[in-house]
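Project standup — Tuesday

K.O.: blocked on the structure for the chain from last sprint. Re-posting the sequence here as requested.
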Amino acid sequence: MIDLRSPEPVRVSVPIPEPEAFTLPALAEVAATLPPERFEHHRAVDLPDLLPDGRVTRDPRPVAEVIADLDRGDSWVMLTGLATVEPYRSAALRLAAPLQLAARVAGETPTGVDLIVFLGADRTRVPFHCDVGHHVLLQLEGTKTLAVGWYDDPEVERTMRAVSVGRNRANPDRLPDRIEEIVLEPGDAVALPAFCFHAVTGCTGRSRALTAVLRTDVTEATAAALEAKRAADRGGPPPAPVA
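H.V.: unblocked you, prediction finished:
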């Protein structure tokens, strides 16, 4: 059982989706139909654990070409918003089912489910960051080392979270005080609570992975409070509510 009140990651068992929709050719075809705000692709081999400004070098080719050439490239690719497209919506709901149950137990009301596909070339890395939703990460191919971190000072942790959410989000500028590494082999899955700091410190071979993201009324309210803190720390007005 996932406890959303706990800051600790937990390994979970989730169903493996049918492979046909998650091959590189199938994902390249889907990626070619997505609007630009629904994908990212960056050169990511040997990135540092900390990248506060988030500045990376983007492969200039179309995202479908980057995916097709993943084994000969040096990038990672992230496709988002796939829960609105079949057969990815079905996979998202199955993968997010343990989070839905945990939310009900915690008294949180789900507000949205998303499915993210992460593709990484050998040795790609993702610096420390945090996200608004609760996560279940499922490794499909390759070996990935996931680092999860915590700050000992609650105010430092809140400040690091505040810079990591909102329209102009950035990354933490200091490493967590405690870091646990989790090695994910094909078929392994782990659940992370919302706002949990994590990084990918290494991929061995081509990495294909899925992430189901569950947002709730609690995570949305927390994100709004953190964005307001960030604005206050900068001496500006609180962010306007989104219509």
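K.O.: great, moving the ticket to review. The radius of gyration is 17 Å. The CA atoms of residues 152 and 177 lie 6 Å apart.
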